[in-house]
Amino acid sequence: AHAHLKGATPATDSTVPAPVSALNLNFSEGVEPAFSGVEVKDANGQAIKTGKPAVSPTDKKQLTVPLESGLNSGKYTVDWHVVSVDGHKTKGEYHFQVK
Question: Coil, strand, or helix at residue 34?
Answer without folding.
Answer: helix
